[in-house]
Amino acid sequence: MAIKKPIVVRSIAPLRKAVAGLRGKHRKVALVPTMGALHDGHFALIKQARRRADVVVVSIFVNPAQFAPTEDLASYPRDIQRDLAALTDLGVDLVWAPTEKVMYPDGFSTAVTPGGPAKAGLEDTFRPHFFGGVTTVVSKLFLQVAPNIALFGQKDYQQLKVVTRMAKDLDIPVTIVGVPTMRDKDGLAMSSRNVYLSVEERTVAPTLHRVLKDSAAKIRAGKPIADVMATGRTTIERAGFKVDYLEARHADSLAPIAPAADGPIRLLVAAKLGKTRLIDNLGV
């Protein structure tokens, strides 16, 4: 029996017609937004979507609005045929793969400007353009697909919080689901950018996760958070990284946290190894 291929649409009117046909009456639609170059982390989101909904839509769009001029938009990994083959195997119902012209047509001049967790002094300090680009494109995806639920990986933890806040603030009727980070056997968080790592860098990269685990254990044991974070930064730097941040933050608000008793804690790290910038996080 042949495997059913997903519907692939590239413009708005066919998208809405296809989603309406798939939704029918009282069927739940899940959206998994991606930028392609799919890996096991994305597949975990899709499998979770299949468990939670009747219809699974995956978007593939490398969003130029979230890349600064100095970042890797042109070289960002793209392999649409490989992605479509994987999505067929996973039983995805519909793939929304718009062009840049469709997503941002001539005269496009509206953007979302997020606050709250988007101004936490983490990714926003080093990539001030980023969350405006993310929330603009994600709000468009929500309005285009009109999903009941949307799934995002916890690896991009601040992004998860920003998108959740945006949907709530703008009264977009979608439930945001955060899915735990998928990791390689050595602990490295799966990311499309991992392909940029050299063989030597790939052996060093799991240091981030090891430091997060060690730091979380020390905080649970009652060690002062400031001391633990300072030690962690030193360890990461000695491994060869350039550290942007290693922070302990409130897991919900992302506000700075000092005593562990102040609330649930999330440790977040971003660091550059060679030319590749990696991020990760872990709950305490």
Automatic annotation (TrEMBL):
Record-listed ATP binding positions: 35-42, 153-156, 190-193
Reaction(s) the record says it catalyses: (R)-pantoate + beta-alanine + ATP = (R)-pantothenate + AMP + diphosphate + H(+)
Residues that bind (R)-pantoate: Q66, Q159
UniProt keyword Secreted present: no
Alphabetical list of SUPFAM superfamilies matching this protein: Nucleotidylyl transferase (SSF52374)
EC code: 6.3.2.1
Enzyme class: ligase
Annotated Pfam families: Pantoate_ligase
Biological pathway: Cofactor biosynthesis; (R)-pantothenate biosynthesis; (R)-pantothenate from (R)-pantoate and beta-alanine: step 1/1
Residues forming the catalytic site: H42 (proton donor)
GO biological process: pantothenate biosynthetic process
Residue positions binding beta-alanine: Q66
Keyword Ligase listed: yes
A Gene Ontology term for the protein's cellular component: cytosol
UniProt KW keywords: ATP-binding, Cytoplasm, Ligase, Nucleotide-binding, Pantothenate biosynthesis
Miscellaneous field: The reaction proceeds by a bi uni uni bi ping pong mechanism.
Quaternary structure annotation from Swiss-Prot or TrEMBL: Homodimer.
Described purpose of this protein according to its UniProt entry: Catalyzes the condensation of pantoate with beta-alanine in an ATP-dependent reaction via a pantoyl-adenylate intermediate.
Family: Belongs to the pantothenate synthetase family.
Name listed for the protein in its UniProt record: Pantothenate synthetase
Taxonomic lineage from the root: Bacteria, Pseudomonadati, Pseudomonadota, Alphaproteobacteria, Hyphomicrobiales
